[in-house]
Amino acid sequence: NLIESFSKIVSRIKGLVYIDDETLREILKEIQRALLKADVSVEVVYNLTKNIEKRFKESKIPQGVSPKDYLLYVIYNEMVNILGGDTPPPVEIAKRPYKLMLVGIEGCGKTTSAAKLAYFYTRKRLKVGLVQTDIHRPGAREQLRQLAERIGAPFYGDPGHHDPIKIAQEGLEKMLREGVDLIIIDTAGRHKSEQELMEEIKRLYDVVKPDEVMLVIDATSGKQAAAQAEAFMRYVPINSIFITKMDSTARGGGALMSVIKTGARIKFIGTGEDVEEIEVFNPRRFVSRLLG
Amino acid sequence: TKLSEDKITKLCDNLFIQLVECDVAVEVSEAIVESVKAELANLKIPRFGVDKEKIVRECIRRAILKVIEDIPDVDFMELVKKIHEERSPVVILFLGPNGYGKTTTIAKIGYLLKNAGYSVVFAAADTFRAGAIEQLEEHGRRLGIKVVKHRYGADPAAVIHDAIAHAESKGIDFVLVDTAGRMHTDVNLMDELKKIYRVAEPDLSVFVADALLGNEALEVAKTYSKYVNVDGLIITKVDAYPKGGSILTFLVTLRKPIYFLGVGQRYEDLIPFRKEWFINQLLG
Ligand SMILES: Nc1nc2c(ncn2[C@@H]2O[C@H](COP(=O)(O)OP(=O)(O)OP(=O)(O)O)[C@@H](O)[C@H]2O)c(=O)[nH]1
Ligand SMILES: Nc1nc2c(ncn2[C@@H]2O[C@H](COP(=O)(O)OP(=O)(O)OP(=O)(O)O)[C@@H](O)[C@H]2O)c(=O)[nH]1
Ligand SMILES: [Mg+2]
Ligand SMILES: [Mg+2]
After folding, report:
1. What is the pLDDT of residues B47-96, one digit of tens each?
2. Closest CB from B138, B212, B215 relative to A138
3. Cβ A164 under 6 angstroms from ligand 1
4. d(CA B50, CA B170)
5. Ligand 1 within 6 A of A116 CB?
6. Quick one: how far is CA B172 from the chain centroid?
7. Does A225 touch chain B (CB under 8 A)?
8. How far apart are CA A262 and CA A242, in angstroms?
């Protein structure tokens, strides 16, 4: 893969110059540092640079390009491919009604992103409903209700019983009666050491049977993003990813690692606090930002 | 006998990886490793009858603690007690980026202060985010703490001013101020924070961040400290990531005490921060 894309590029370019071992090692050190600062895991960084070093010892690179830029370009292409390549992620809602469930760690931006998704798909002429199953966090129901009102989307939240499963079932019934095309189900934040909450999300999944489970990841989180993603996968399938807080200066290595762990595609990013601050994911832009 | 250069390089490389793997920012990890290197270079190990590995590990541990030795482990309750002896109400401002646990932490501190016999009022100065006022109000209801609030869109500084006035007239000991989360990259919001700080004149300015942060912790710390004075920190969600290296990033970059670690979502889930405990935790 890394090797193939490299040899493809080489065969297309005329004129080559040597990179000596010393130069290569220096460049790889620089690249390693850049990737580590981007929150890419140590294991991935070292494997990546090991592969490159082995492959490029005494090899040739195209003339007129600095060795560093050339190696970065190879890595850039490899990462873009990991993130889905040049084809934009599939964000069309294929079937109606469609149930989309959001999961993720506390405070990563699920509730805000639920509203953003409702805004996005409402603009695509879908009727979108929002369901709040979070009964743990004070004001969670009110938060999503206010956002739903802002967008003009139908909303269902806890009417007083304290069972997320019941709320989800009643919410789905209501949304289906109202002929909603897309039902977005918000859930309480949780992390892998909160055993009962992880079991709760599995029970919720089994009852709701969502068409898609979207993992919401905070771009500012580091390597825990991947560890938590892996843990979520033991309880529910992870079909897609939404990366929030991309208006920070975080380079997103944690999110990249989560993609590698889950095999899920990043579909959207959040670029601010307002419901309109949502963008369809663009791998090329993401990787150039990651590589600094 | 002293350690060989080769051995020192190997130890430092391993330490660097260990720190980075726990999400200590790269630049901070590099600085720490430089300090450790200097200590290791001076380390003299007896030739016989000792556990060499243990001696080296202890040297590394002490070297890291040395980097942060000028930052005190603060007893928060002692600190606020002293401030309260000088003036009342004591105004504590909580600030930080989005979603890291400010509002929940304010509730925890309110719980702590009430249990210690103080009277508390909350200032709902997050007048922006959906549900922010209701969230704090619910905490107030559960804890029996009054919440001073205006409407959404109101000037946060006005809410704070009212809360302080209320506390003064009613003889309330503490005003805990909740502010909206804000991204350090948003200049308008950071300027607003500067204004809020100036109006509130807090006795304590507490920065709240979570343990999950990666290298971004460095940027957040540098930018926030440019806009407002930070007296101390509370790092949350340590239960999700006990080895959270961002803790070390914040200590080394801001050089301010960490008052507490948030270790869960209940009011009692707050533990005093101890440097030694954390470094031992980090080094495993
Ligand atoms: N700047 C910025 N803030 C964001 C973004 N997405 C969410 N936020 C903010 O992050 C904070 C947390 O968002 P929530 O939607 O409450 O997060 P959550 O995952 O639902 O939190 P829990 O339900 O408690 O787990 C809020 O202040 C949001 O406004 C984003 O893309 N950029
Ligand atoms: N596991 C765990 N969750 C926490 C901790 N502290 C806060 N949380 C959770 O993190 C989420 C966000 O907390 P908030 O208090 O709303 O965060 P905030 O900083 O006020 O958020 P904004 O006002 O939107 O910027 C909530 O679900 C809290 O329950 C902690 O120490 N451990
Ligand atoms: Mg939420
Ligand atoms: Mg808040």
Report:
1. 887 888 899 999 999 999 999 999 999 999 999 999 999 999 999 999 99
2. B138
3. no
4. 65
5. no
6. 26
7. yes
8. 13
